[in-house]
Amino acid sequence: MEKIYKILCVDDEDFNLDLLETILSPLGYELLTAQSGKAALETLTARHVDLVLLDINMPEMDGYEVCGKIKSDPQTRHIPVIMITSLDSRDNKLRSIEAGADEFLGKPLDQSELLLRVKNILAARDYEDTFTYLIHALARTSEANDMDTGNHILRVGEYSAIIARELGMPEKFIETIRLQATLHDMGKVHIPSHILKKDGRLNESEMEEVKKHSAFGAMIIGDHPRLAFGKRIALSHHEKWDGTGYPTGLKGEEIPLEARIVAIADCYDALRNSRIYKPRYDHWAACKVITEGDGRLQPEHFDPQILAIFKRIEPMFAALYDKLKDAPTVNGNPLH
Questions:
Q1: pLDDT averaged over 10-residue windows placed end to end, the chain, 336 residues
Q2: Of 77, 174, 210, 238, whose CB is crowded by the most CB atoms within 10 A?
Q3: Which own/partner contact pairs does 323-326 have at CB distance under 8 Å and 24+ positions apart?
Q4: d(CA 173, CA 99)
């Protein structure tokens, strides 16, 4: 059965919405409409949307603000946005790009150009959706032997993206680390489940076995160029800034930047989660362990610049943890 794409058209003028419907509906697209930024965001919360066509010039909340909100929300940032405006200037295009827009169209609309942009952006989205799905499916296999949930791997990706943005990294880096940080513990699928689920602390030989998961993860991910980022994360996210980590004892900037970012994101979320042998830490206790140490974990283990960023933005970590918190369980089963 052929997929029916849902396109949200956002414009405060009826004429423009009618025009878009006249152009797009005959080609099988399902159109949703909103006449304000607030209504658009409510629609995105309630409905599945494949593409947003967004007018810039609207009262109360303009298109730049709406686009920024779409792209800053983990639940909607994947939805492509085409900005539409009669203000066809370089500054408006730059502001659209800065807000996160994927494309920019000027008014009056050229029907052929609109249809071509819509077709191309939806085709690209389908490809990226498939790639993202496969990455998450691969990442979820690491849960088979472990206590962590899918929300753990998603939270680590989101924390990492926040840090990367604070570091001023390019958008491509930010989006790549958001997705491929989920592969960080891929190698745990090779670690015996009785070790990962042991009721108590691991002995020395068991700990050495667990440490192999970094190399196993890199081996599983393999050598495809589009997964090189994730492979570096899987291999090196347990390396420490002071050289005391594993698997190879890399030190300082020898450790790939993406692995240094994921290291602190993973530690924070691990502290927030309960284990058979330890209770979950609240936000402030987790921050104290990371910034002051607890005997096993020390501030010297982290890149000083990334640690400074963590100290500055830790309230964002708390908010994200609460937003993507795991559902309560009894004996491993979710409560309904």
A1: 84 93 93 94 89 91 92 85 79 80 86 91 82 82 63 92 94 90 92 84 91 95 91 97 97 98 97 79 96 93 98 96 72 44
A2: 238
A3: 323/74, 324/74, 324/151, 324/154, 324/155, 324/158, 325/151, 326/149, 326/151, 326/152, 326/273
A4: 17
Residue 150, exposed/middle/buried by CB under 10 A (0-12, 13-18, 19+)? Answer: middle
Taking residue 92's Cβ as centre, other Cβ atoms within 10 Å add up to 19
Catalytic residue, chosen from 6, 38, 172, 188, is: 188
Domains of the chain: 6-129 (3.40.50.2300), 146-334 (1.10.3210.10)
Q: How many residues does this entry show for the chain?
A: 336
- The answer to whether 188 is a known catalytic residue is yes
- What gap in Å lies between CA 255 and CA 273, rounded to an integer? 26
Q: Token pair of 170, please?
A: 């390019």
Strand partners, 85: 106
pTM of the model: 0.68
